[in-house]
Amino acid sequence: MTARHAKKSPRPRRPRGLADLLGAAHAIEDEARVRYGELADQLETHNNPEVAALFRRMAEIEALHAANILALATETATPLAAASATVPGRDEGPETAPPSAVHYLMTPHHALSIMLKNERRAFRFYDAIARTAPSAQVRALARRLAKEEKEHIRLAREWLARFPPPPSDWHEDPDPPGDG
Q: Which of 11, 53, 61, 105 is the most exposed place for a label (fewest CB within 10 A)?
């Protein structure tokens, strides 16, 4: 299939109201929680406990973010609309890394780079809504969510600075799985 004929992901439906945006935000955070858990499982299987633990921590953080969205819905007396949120060119939400992003020898630097990329995508998602939503309430909430994602970007950068980039041959395994 050529790039010209490749199936395109549907454009995300812009939230029409607070319930839509809160539902999308909750779906984004919960999807990220699940995926980080899956990535942790994958790394545990490959005996990479340091990175598995980091992905588990990321899953816990996303669970807290999802809980914060539920609290915000309660605070604003807004029910969550059933939603999913994809971004153009992806079949998943903005904070979800594909399973193919993981290598069994990856380092914490790689894991945090994935997190940073996800947080940046989420920021752009909410920022676009904040700039284009027809409702002032939706724009205000999207700005708030974008601001939170900006803080997550700052934290990801801070954590990433603690782990130097790996050497260029980080992925070479002298005893790869399946040999022997």
A: 11
